[in-house]
Write a structure and sequence with these properties.
CATH topology of the largest domain: Beta-lactamase
Helix content: 10-25%
Number of domains: 3
Number of strands: 23
Largest sheet: 8 strands, antiparallel, barrel
Strand order of the largest sheet: 1-2-3-4-5-6-7-8
Number of helices: 10
Oligomer: single chain
Shape: globular
């Protein structure tokens, strides 16, 4: 289903796309109009998702030789009139999805497909195939957020002078971001202080969110992979300055060599979604091939570097996928096995695990997204198993908070390793970018804080830690694209103040 990011990207192309073709008026059905009438199911590849988003396009002829149609997606429906140029076999139309989101489309009939290449780095292209009306998906399943959200308190430990302002902050964010279900956990002095949830794990199934709800971590998982790497450094098994290809020779040589350190701080020049990574075309015999950390490199390994390492900063999930392969080789055991032995077992985490589609995971939340008009609807899913080291974990919110609390002492890393992790990295010219190794670094109310956000289909998350005061705030929700950073910082500021 078409995401908010896709619409925003396409809308930015509004002035760059070709002007709608001016078709000559012809009788209905003439000049090849019949070639494009009917119902089409399409998809677009978008950033942050391994699976494409879907849309449905319906086209009917008009007496003046034009077409009228309807574009249906999770973000909403739009009616339009289209121009058809029979000579160029080109279709042009504009959709207004409301809230200032107007998108121009320019598609060409290529054989049995309608295809368009907007030319934007964030969108690989639009394609649609003819479908029967019976095959068209039902309209998006809407969520009525005017209903009072249920509240579930699994651990109520907030003193009154914190509880009232913190709950008020949460309520305001739930409304502003149209969040369907959210869970919050707060830890202090290494122990869970409070765990509570708001809204629904499954709205239409009337299942409230709770401390048992399983949410995806998304990019917060990069801190996990960074932790594994620094543990291996402590054991003398990984040299952060060594050429990555000495650990993973399957990754093709690029125009410059680069190291694990440069992967850790996003200064290696590895591509991210918006750069249109080159995917290796091959077939696989296994059901879930990208659970293999080496095979997962097929998603981007043929792509050139964006720049000479250490000359710039470019955030990259793909770089952390490669770092996961480095960890696997340096540690001498499968990545998932090291994850269990080095992170989950020492911290007593029972629900924390890679989010593989072939694994049955009870209490897994459904996912929702917000349309251009601000309403919430049931969203889609995607297979994140290829990017586990860069953001493919799942757990309850309490276990995310307990993980964060482990950085307030030497539960996972030595004091020296934590200092390295929380030191802002700089490029060759001395430019800083607010990122260390697997964590963003900064200050709040005069105190050092480290944090990371996460966002992908079915989830938006935020983890913030104040190591000096041993305070942790973990937020997880099931609404894609929701902004939780301001809420997390406001909660922590309330506690610090």
């Amino acid at each position: 289903m078409l995401s908010t990011l896709v619409l925003a990207t396409l809308a930015s192309l509004h002035s760059a796309l070709p002007a709608p073709a001016q078709a000559t008026a012809v009788a209905a059905g003439a000049a090849g109009v019949a070639d494009v009438t009917g119902t089409w199911k399409g998809s677009v590849q978008v950033p942050g998702q391994s699976d494409p988003d879907a849309f449905v396009l319906t086209l009917e002829p008009r007496a003046d030789g034009k077409l009228e149609g309807r574009f249906r997606s999770t973000l909403g429906n739009a009616d339009f009139r289209a121009d058809w140029d029979a000579g160029e076999r080109a279709l042009a139309f504009a959709c207004d999805f409301g809230s200032g989101t107007a998108v121009d489309f320019a598609l060409t009939l290529e054989g049995e497909e309608l295809a368009g290449s907007p030319g934007a780095p964030l969108v690989a292209g639009l394609r649609a195939k003819r479908a029967s009306r019976e095959a068209v998906a039902q309209p998006p399943i809407e969520v009525d957020l005017s209903r009072p959200r249920p509240v579930s308190v699994d651990l109520g430990g907030l003193p009154d002078f914190w509880e009232e302002p913190i709950v008020a902050l949460v309520d305001a964010t739930l409304a502003a971001e149209a969040i369907v279900g959210l869970s919050m956990a707060i830890a202090a002095d290494g122990e869970l202080l409070d765990v509570r949830s708001f809204g629904w794990q499954d709205y239409h199934g009337n299942e409230p969110a709770s401390g048992r709800t399983m949410y995806r971590w998304a990019s917060i998982g990069k801190s996990v992979t960074a932790t594994l790497a620094l543990q291996l450094v402590e054991e003398g098994k990984l040299d952060l300055e060594r050429d990555v290809r000495e650990y993973v020779p399957e990754f093709p040589a690029k125009q410059f060599p680069f190291s694990a350190r440069q992967l850790l701080c996003h200064q290696a020049g590895i591509v991210h979604y918006q750069h249109g990574p080159v995917r290796t075309e091959r077939t696989y015999e296994r059901e879930n091939p990208f659970a293999d950390r080496i095979l997962a490199l097929d998603m981007f390994k043929e792509s050139p570097l964006l720049f000479e390492p250490d000359t710039s900063y470019s955030y990259s999930t793909h770089g952390y996928v490669l770092l996961g392969a480095v960890v696997e080789r340096a540690g001498g055991a499968p990545f998932d096995e090291q994850l269990a032995e080095r992170i989950a077992k020492p911290l007593g985490l029972e629900t924390f695990q890679p989010d593989h589609p072939t694994t049955e995971i009870p209490e897994r939340t459904l996912g929702y997204c917000v349309r251009a008009d601000g309403s919430a609807v049931l969203g889609g899913d995607s297979n994140v198993s290829w990017k586990v080291p860069g953001g493919g974990y799942i757990s309850t919110v309490a276990e995310l908070a307990r993980y964060g609390a482990a950085f307030c002492d030497e539960g996972l890393l030595s004091a020296e390793s934590r200092r390295a992790m929380w030191t802002e990295q700089r490029t060759k010219d001395g430019t800083g970018h607010g990122y260390g190794f697997g964590f963003g670094v900064g200050e709040l109310e005069g105190r050092r804080v480290v944090s990371h956000s996460g966002g992908q289909r079915k989830t938006s998350t935020f983890l913030i830690v104040c190591p000096d005061l041993k305070l942790v705030v973990a937020l997880m929700c099931n609404t894609q694209g929701a902004g939780l950073g301001d809420l997390a910082r406001a909660i922590l500021a309330e506690m610090i103040g």
